[in-house]
From TrEMBL, chains A, B:
Species: Halobacillus aidingensis
Biased composition (Acidic residues): 10-30
InterPro entries the UniProt entry points to: GrpE, GrpE_CC, GrpE_head
Domain of life: Bacteria
Function: Participates actively in the response to hyperosmotic and heat shock by preventing the aggregation of stress-denatured proteins, in association with DnaK and GrpE. It is the nucleotide exchange factor for DnaK and may function as a thermosensor. Unfolded proteins bind initially to DnaJ; upon interaction with the DnaJ-bound protein, DnaK hydrolyzes its bound ATP, resulting in the formation of a stable complex. GrpE releases ADP from DnaK; ATP binding to DnaK triggers the release of the substrate protein, thus completing the reaction cycle.
The protein, known as: Protein GrpE
Keywords: Chaperone, Cytoplasm, Stress response
Location of the region described as Disordered in the Swiss-Prot/TrEMBL record: 1-30
GO cellular component: cytoplasm
Classification via NCBIfam families: PRK14140.1
Family from the record: Belongs to the GrpE family.
Keyword check for Chaperone: yes
Keyword Aminoacyl-tRNA synthetase: no
Length: 176, 176
């Protein structure tokens, strides 16, 4: 009788265990799936955050560079006019009236130069400087005992830079 | 005997059910928590995505505006020099040499104007135009039968705009 009872209980147990295991296995599967999904979304979140941060940093840098060199295209347009202004001012004039006119024009020229300088435009130093291929374009080589080797002896056309960027290199004669 | 057996089985069942329920409840709690966490991360992901998109759009717009008006600060600096250039050119000169000099300067002036125009700088039309408070600054009011009411009869100082932005309004006399 005891044995019989135990048998019955065992049978019942087995059936119930199976059912219960079934449930637990299903729940565990779902848990596992959810954990994976959560992990995946979390990774996407982290990647997106990193992308966003990079984009912000890059944008900030671009903005600063854009701002720093914002005048470049207008400066490039103005430089040939400035060349002609200088050339025109070199003409000698006679008579008081013409001299006054020329003085007035020299003042206008200075005002233009001052406006450009305020925006960061500078003439590139040339004559007497050591030849620098980043800033000087050598048009001619000469042999001049008065200068040391590799020194700019004459500037043929002014060069300009905008802050640290060369807009137009100086055209120069260099001592061999 | 049958009853007795059933009782024993029921007892055993109850104990087992309790244990099984305990597990299921724990797993369900964890499932629920995971679902909530997943939902939360997902919401953060969506918000971040929306923020990022907004930031990108705003940055793009700012970039376009920066680009459009990039020359503004240099233009503002150059306008007073341009005023003086015009004033200086209005002086009458005598003699061929001085006239040649003045012609050369007029060409330089035209070149400056062309460089500025290429960057989008325009003179604001004034004389004969209807008075527009966005572009014209009325310095004087006059009564002139030759003009209709609210028409600019004289320009006292040129105004300039950079594309659609007024950099300096024209100073004008307006007919009452």
């Amino acid at each position: 009788m005891e044995e019989n009872k135990q048998e019955i209980i065992d049978e019942k147990d087995e059936a119930q265990n199976e059912e219960s295991e079934q449930t637990v296995v299903e729940e565990t599967d779902e848990l596992e799936q959810l954990r994976q999904e959560k992990e995946e979304i979390n990774n996407r979140l982290l990647r997106l955050q990193a992308d966003y941060d990079n984009f912000r940093r890059r944008t900030q840098k671009e903005k600063e560079a854009d701002r720093k060199y914002r005048s470049q295209s207008l400066v490039e347009e103005l430089i040939p006019a400035l060349d002609n202004f200088e050339r025109a001012l070199q003409v000698e004039v006679d008579g008081d009236a013409a001299k006054n006119f020329a003085d007035g024009m020299k003042m206008v020229y200075d005002q233009f130069k001052a406006a450009l300088e305020k925006e960061g435009v500078e003439e590139i130093p040339a004559k007497g400087e050591e030849f620098d291929p980043h800033m000087h374009q050598a048009i001619m080589q000469v042999e001049d005992e008065n200068y040391e080797s590799n020194i700019v002896v004459e500037e043929l056309q002014k060069g300009y830079r905008l802050k640290d960027r060369v807009i137009r290199p100086s055209m120069v004669k260099v001592n061999q």
